Amino acid sequence: MQHSNTQDTLVGLFVAAGIAGLFFLALQVSNLSTFVEEDTYTVTASFENSGGLKVKSPVSAAGVKIGQVKSISFDPKTYQSVVEMAIYSKYENLPTDTTASVFTAGLLGEQYVNLEPGGSDEYLQDGSKIEITQSAIILEKAIGQFLFKSAEEKAKK
Amino acid sequence: MENRVKQQDNLVSVRNLSFSRGEKKIFDDVSLSIERGKITAIMGPSGTGKTTLLKLIGGQLAPASGSIHVDGLNVHRLKRAELYNLRKRMGMLFQSGALLTDMSVYDNVAFPLREHTHLPESMIRTLVLMKLHAVGLRGARNLMPSELSGGMARRIALARAIALDPMMIMYDEPFTGQDPISMGALVHLIKSLNTTLGLTSIIVSHDVQETLAIADYAYLISEGRIAGQGTPEQIRQSPSEWVQQFITGAADGPVHFHYPAKDYFDDLVSTGRRY
Amino acid sequence: MIKFLNFLGRTTTTGFTKLGRGSYFLLDTLAGIGSMALRPRLVVNQIYFVGVLSFLIIVISGLFVGMVLGLQGYYILSDFGAEETLGLMVAASLVRELGPVVTALLFAGRAGSALTAEIGLMKATEQLSGMEMMAIDPIKRIITPRFLAGFIAMPLLAALFSAVGIVGGQLVGTGLLGVDDGAYWSQMQANIDFEDDIVNGVIKSLVFGFVTTWIALFEGYDTVPTSEGVSRATTRTVVNSAFSILGLDFILTALMFGDD
Lengths: 157, 275, 260
Ligand SMILES: Nc1ncnc2c1ncn2[C@@H]1O[C@H](COP(=O)(O)OP(=O)(O)O)[C@@H](O)[C@H]1O
Ligand SMILES: [Mg+2]
Fold this sequence. Notes:
Number of strands of chain C: 0
Number of helices of chain C: 9
Mean pLDDT of chain C: 91
Oligomer: heterotrimer
Shape of chain C: elongated
Low-confidence stretches of chain C: none
Helix content of chain A: 25-40%
Largest interface: A-C, 34 and 37 residues
Helix content of chain C: over 70%
Order of helices and strands of chain A: HHEEEEEEEEH
Number of domains of chain A: 2
Bound molecules: adenosine-5'-diphosphate, magnesium ion
Largest sheet of chain C: none
Strand content of chain C: under 5%
Radius of gyration of chain A: 24 Å
Structural class of chain C: mainly alpha
Mean pLDDT of chain A: 82
Number of strands of chain A: 8
């Protein structure tokens, strides 16, 4: 068969373009770039209720992502939700009295852990536990409380 | 199992062959022999199973019973690799030519050489040009199959069939649909290839005169059986009515002009419904 | 009624017979893969026919699908004040579903039908039979390279489709409708998971490539060797491929994204 060079070149270009597409999806679209390269250390926090938090939900401080949820389990002794978080090693100076809260991004957005640094001189280390936590706000509960309160107030008047 | 000595001068021997397509019996206990180095014709009306016979010999179809030996080997007992080795020594010229439409004439003839040998390209070129020269179409090497006339396509296919220097060639209807000049060229070509290359040829055809002109021996097949056989002379002088009708092409005879139907008058006056 | 049951029984039986023949055909095709290592050129030539020639239709379709997703997504999301997540929505729909599925459907129409017609015509003109008589196995020589080419080309085409679509969504979303460019990409990156989304999408398109090419080649190889037979086989390729793609997509989606 006569081998056509242009045909070979086009096949080469096509395969290169396809592979470039795959790389684009892996590096530009997905989280691959964010989690392969980073070293992390683990801290835990217990919540009364971790709401809709999931593995891989973001952990952020002051609106910046500094890590992600590694695991969520139920502690049968305290009846609490134990959340393990992987924090990027470059954010190593979080004070021990940091507050962890479960927040929701926007009204219907996903839930994430927000860390609010305290004032201590000692820093969290691998395996540390965050003591001060605030549970997720469960929408139904909040609405229920609000209605209950306003009914109570009305009754007082 | 079979005695090899017995078949020595027969390149192909078909013994008690039966084969059916669904309900239809195509061959019913047919035996015939193809002598080495000769041109043997197999003739019969369209649809009698001439192509089927060639495919049986080539091992593309398997018989219901009976055996086919080619060069002493039982075609349908061979392992796949052995069958492929045997096929390298048999050429077949298909009715349509069966050229590969996506490559040029040159590449078509080179195809079996490239697939089966590790010859350098310069040697392949020499061989291809020789084979093309043998069929008189060396000048057509750069054409594509779609640019060829029917006669040219068949000659190219013939060049491809002899590319691996086979011991035999099977021609399926080589003359059908050819103008008189290409027909003459093909008749001449088949005859001269047979003598110069020492081939054994099997011609399947219903073109009686051209075939009988070059055949050494002929079989006539009809309705799954051999209806006549012999040298061309013997065939021409056969007392059988059926043979005479076939070779002279009379419209009516033992084979009727009309396909079986109910009475003509009844048919005309009936309502035309399908029952 | 009895007639109908009879008909149903016969159709089912022929269906299974065909599946059986198709499976043998597939085994023969796969058995030839080893020999392709010695003759990569055969596969490269076929990638040209199934891949390069499908490139344009895939890229253009991907661009438009992405742009439509950008528009529709914006209208829906902005009702909830969540237009920041437009990038996520566009990328998730493309990478998980539309990329593999639409590419496979287009591939079946563009390359699959061409493969069926090509093989069917080769059969009708006795080219396959002729090869067999030349002691060349048509499955190894003709079918296997085309099969491999389809299997390789499909994920590449699907990746192109998704990538171009994401850029199309960005053009509309951030260029026309004023979504923040940083948010478009960061929401996407934060939520599209490499393994769960990208790898699963690629697995889907590998499965679709396998099945679509298999159907196309088998329909061609199994063609009734007449011009009517070839045209019917071509239609069957497109219809059967579409059903298989959509059915398999449901099953794969349930398996992959079922438990989160
Ligand atoms: N693939 C096939 N399937 C079913 N029947 C076939 C097939 N090929 C040929 N036949 C039937 O077998 C008979 C013999 O065909 P063939 O060998 O082509 O005849 P010939 O070459 O003598 O004209 C015909 O009646 C034909 O209809
Ligand atoms: Mg015939």
